[in-house]
Amino acid sequence: MMAESNFSFPEKYHHLNGFDSYHESEAVKGALPIGRNSPQKPPHGLYAEKFSGTAFTAPRHENKQTWFYRILPSCSHPNFSPHDNESLESQLCLDNKRLNYIPNQLRWDPFDHSTETDFVSGLRLLSGAGDPTLKQGLGIYIYSAGVSMPEKSAFYSADGDLLIVAQDGVLDIRTEFGHLLVRPMEIAVIPRGAKYHVSLPSGPVRGYALELYEGHFQLPELGPIGSNGLANARDFQIPVASFSEDHGATAGEGKSNYTITCKFANSLHQTVQTHTPFDVVAWHGTYYPFKYDLHRFNTIGSISFDHPDPSIFTVLTAPSPRPGTAIADFVIFPPRWLVGEDTFRPPWYHRNTMSEFMGLIKGSYDAKKGGEGGFVAGGASLHNVMSGHGPDAESFEGASNAELKPMKVGGDGSCAFMFESSLMVGVTEWGLRECRKVQDGYNEHSWGGIKVHWKRPEGEQGKGHLL
Ligand SMILES: O=C(O)Cc1cc(O)ccc1O
Ligand SMILES: [Fe+2]
User: Fold this and answer.
1) Secondary structure of 279-293 as H, E, C letters
2) What is the spatial distance between Cα 40 and Cα 47, in angstroms, rounded to a whole number?
3) What share of the chain is helix, strand, coil (3-state, %, to 5)?
4) Residue 77 annotated as binding site
5) CA 176, 177, 183, 187 torsion: positive or negative?
6) Nearest 5 degrees, angle CA 54-CA 94-CA 105?
7) What does the entry list as the binding residues for Fe cation (predicted)?
């Protein structure tokens, strides 16, 4: 007989599976009302509260709403006041007047780890575009944290959905919907408005995040690929209901105080309430946080010739109203086989009307040198609208002379990613100067050594334009 394993993942980390599905979860039997959403008296004395991620009247296929059944409704709190930490506000919030728009290619050394900050105080806006009050645009963050958020605290953003790309360390994200344990090579999306608390079960963390001010991430169309491939819907994991009973009903001494911080219109606000925001006993709907393990991505590529557009590596896309033109695509470059015949296999030289922000989760990237001053895990690059870029000189020489046998790139588990946006992004003061990670000679280092290989065919005079 085979030995049975006694290990089971703690129940609070169980999941529901399926992107964009209708999900429901109850932590106490019978907490979900049957056959109606807001009965006169919901089960077990719970309050029903609707949480809307799209307009009530958004088309059915885009509509995202969830019903919470909770111990107290969210409105039960004192007024918010402006947050007293102004530097935190400027660190997290987009200020269009202070963005730097520069056509230069930029690259950053790995961002520092931190021992003092928690997930929220360790978020740094690096780049962005648009305006959350108009629900347009996005913000790109680096996070680094060394401690858990204070036990009785929660954060939410009314400005957008947050896509988190875990690069180093594990995040235990407690949300109103339940827990998500997010490890390196996993991503998570916390929807606009959802309250969360991040603790660090295994030490310091570092990673990347994108706040999307407009719409929501969805799976890309598969077109001729067919009905499966890339990120498959069933691999997205949604938390199960998990709640605390610290509802503050016993007034007087020992009453709990929960600090709720919110990001609203690019400013921070705070209130203190006497009950936990994590009191949702059951929920059902289509608007919820989720996570996805990038190892599960089914990578598709060229099996004949030519390097395809990186859109074949799209995990999630946040569309703009213009078909095929994203506010943000989240694209990965995972380990894969390259077999193209008579093909320059790394990315081609390129100028793009979209902006390309790249990060490296692990390993190396086939168009760039690693090592000191190179493109390194935990670092980043930005090739803004129409800024020329492509393989550095060394990668070019290597790839244009390589024997074209089948070759696995990133076989060591490498994974780079890209936030590609139709918007021109500005870089914050922190991103450009204060972080002190911008590599001085990125352009020179990468492309300064590019050689001229042009040879005019002997006897060829050109067509009158040879000066
Ligand atoms: O610039 C980059 O490295 C990203 C990228 C990758 C690719 O395979 C094709 C185009 C592209 O912009
Ligand atoms: Fe590119």
Assistant:
1) CEEEEEECCCCEEEE
2) 10
3) 10, 35, 55
4) no
5) negative
6) 110
7) 350, 356, 389
Tell me: the pLDDT tens digits for 284-295? 999 999 999 999
Residue 287 and residue 31 in contact, taking contact as beta carbons nearer than 8 Å: no
DSSP of 378-415 = T-EEEE-TT--B-S-HHHHHHHHHS--S-EEETTTT-E
Evaluate whether residue 436 is within a structural domain: yes
pLDDT tens column, 190-237? 999 999 999 999 999 999 999 999 999 999 999 999 999 999 999 999
Going from the Cα of 310 to the center of ligand 1, the distance in angstroms, rounded, reads 6
Q: Does residue 274 contact residue 258 with C-beta atoms inside 8 Å?
A: yes
244 within domain boundaries: no
Q: Which amino acid is at 52?
A: S
Q: Which of 44, 307, 383, 465 is catalytic?
A: 307
pLDDT at site 11: 85
Residue 24 marked as a ligand binder: no
Q: Which residues of 96-109 are buried (b: 16+ CB within 10 A; e: fewer)?
A: eeebeeeeebbbbb
The per-residue pLDDT for 250 is 58
180-196: buried (b, 16+ CB within 10 Å) or exposed (e) per residue?
Answer: bbbebbbbbbbbbbbbb
Catalytic annotation present for 77: no
Closest atom of ligand 1 to CA, residue 352:
12
- Two tokens at 245? 């009973």
Q: Which residue's entry shows tokens 């991620």? A: 53
Ligand 1 closest atom vs CA 350: 12
Phi, psi of 392, deg, nearest 5: -70, 170
Question: What separation in angstroms does the CA of 336 have from each of 101, 411, 412?
Answer: 35, 7, 11
3-state secondary structure of 44: helix
The pTM is what?
0.96
| 397 within domain boundaries | yes
Q: Which atom of ligand 1 is nearest to the CA of 389?
A: 1
Q: Is 186 part of any known ligand binding site? A: no
**pLDDT band per the 50, 70, 90 thresholds, residue 72:** very high
In a domain, 412, yes or no: yes
Cβ contacts of 3 within 8 Å, gap of 6 or more? none
**Nearest-angstrom CA–CA distance, 351 and 147:** 41
Which ligand does the CA of 446 lie closest to?
A: 1
347 lines ligand 1 (CB under 6 A): yes
Question: Which residues form the domain of 429?
Answer: 294-447
Phi/psi of residue 205, nearest 5 degrees:
-130, 155
For a ligand 1 pocket test, name from 105, 349, 418, 420 the mutation site with the most ligand atoms within 8 angstroms of its C-beta.
418
